[in-house]
Structures are given as structure tokens and as C-alpha cells.
Amino acid sequence: MGDAQKNVLLKVEDLSIGFSQYVKGTQKRIIRPIANMHVEIGEGEIVAVVGASGSGKSLLAHAVLGILPGNAICSGTILYRGEALTEERKKRLRGSEISFIPQSVNYLDPLMRVGRQVQIGLDRKTAKKKQKELFAQYGLQERDGRLFPFELSGGMLRRVLFATSVREGVKLVIADEPTPGIHPQALSEILRQLKQFAIDGAGVMLITHDIVSALEIADRVAVLRDGTTVEISDAAAFNGSGELLQSEYTRRLWRALPQNDFDLEWKERGVGEAWL
Ligand SMILES: Nc1ncnc2c1ncn2[C@@H]1O[C@H](COP(=O)(O)OP(=O)(O)OP(=O)(O)O)[C@@H](O)[C@H]1O
Ligand code: NI
Q: For atom 16 of ligand 1, which residue has the closest CA?
């Protein structure tokens, strides 16, 4: 953002998440995949959250949404519009003011036709019309609306999932990997819609492995590593050889991207692929 006048919408501070697990049947231990994580999103701002697989992106999203598994122990501060985001408040805002595009298409109801699922939460009088518009927008056929999730391809399901997030009155969008397996036209439509959310004043958390696409729309980028925040930089810092980036870790990842030819040693070790 680099723009101090914008109001902070979401502020996550000192987030830690642990899980109690049983080892060898009886011994209980706590693993702590997230520690001291922080991120901040302003109104009208898009923050891309990037990091290797297992770095804690989805857990961060689930903590904000209040959908961590039952054995999770979560501590830290999550403020939304300046007030503590309590579990009760999360529940109330989820699906209305706070919109979520999950990483897994398993979040769709397997027993409900997909057209119907996109209509949920829309104004009842215009729901059908709006759903048809959304389908057209994301390259889905009208007849696809009558199908059940198992009858659609993975890429189609991703587009259905995305369509369920497009609602009026959304103030915070949390998109967890909305684009893998999506053809270029639908991808640019999704990026365009995320940008539109921000133009309309919403904050957007865009979790992704596709940093190159994310940089097309992101204001800032938060880099996670092993469950903690390594750095948060303006999108503009992801440029050239990355000299404006704060950490060596981020710089190396940036340089190891296929399009960037700076760090061949890391590339040979496959770091760029792990990142993507
Ligand atoms: N329910 C759970 N119980 C125990 N550990 C978990 C649980 N869920 C996630 N973890 C661990 O927390 C870490 C972060 O997981 P998370 O799903 O947030 O990663 P991610 O960055 O979203 O990865 P990906 O890019 O593959 O989606 C991983 O090491 C994972 O094994
Ligand atoms: Ni994830």
C-alpha cells in the first residue's frame, strides 16, 4: 500500500497455531506449524501471500475465518475493522462480509447442483439471473448449472468456487489458491474480479504460488516461510534482481523464478519449482 491514509481492515499479529497430536497412540505432543506470523490488509488493498507448500498460508486463512480444525490451539491478535475478530464474529461475517475461496473444491456441497450453490447468499429475486451472469463470466455453460460437483472438471469446479465469492457487500476476500489449473482467459477474469473487489473498497488476501500473476494486481506481498512472516514488501520491490527486497530468502526465491535468470545454482536445486 505505502499509503498510510488507507484504513487498516485486517490486522493479524503474533499469530501462533499449534495442534495437539497423539504419537504412538497414547503420548500427546503439540506441534506448532505457525509462530509469530503477522500480516495487515488495508481497505481497497490486495496483499498476495506467498510461500512454499507447508509454509502456513492456508492455516493463516483458516485462522482468520474461524475454520481451524477442532484440535488447533490458536493464539495472537486478529483485528478486523479495529475490533477483535472473535470466533462468534468470524462466524457471523463468514460468507457475507468476509468472503472465502477455499483451496480445495471439496468445500462444495457434493449433493447440491452447482448452479444452486452459486445462488446461495445472492438476493433471492435476482439470484438466478446473477448466477447465470457469473457462469457466463467464468466461461461456464448455462447447462453446467444443473450438474453436481462430481460431473465437473477440476478447473470448472474452481470457477464455480470463485463465482460463489462474488457477492455484494463483501469487505474482505480471502482467496486460497484460486487459480491453479485454470485456463488463461478464466485466470485473467479472476484477477480482474479480485481487482474489482479492491476498487470497490474491499481488502483482498490472495494466497498463491503464482507470484507472477499475483504481481499483476497485488499492492503488497507477504512472504511466509516455515510458519512465520519473512517479509512484507511493496509489489514494486519484486523487480529486477530484487535489490529492494528485504530478506535474502525472498531475493533468492524471486531470482529462482523461471522467468528470472539470476540464480542458476538455486534453480538447479529445484528451488524455483518448489516455490511455484
Ligand atoms: N490439521 C493439522 N494438523 C497438524 N498439522 C497441520 C494441520 N493442518 C496443517 N498442518 C501443518 O501446518 C503446516 C502449514 O500448513 P498449510 O496448509 O497452512 O500450508 P500451505 O502454505 O497452505 O501449503 P500449500 O501451499 O501446500 O497449500 C504444514 O506443515 C502442515 O503439515
Ligand atoms: Ni494451502
A: 56
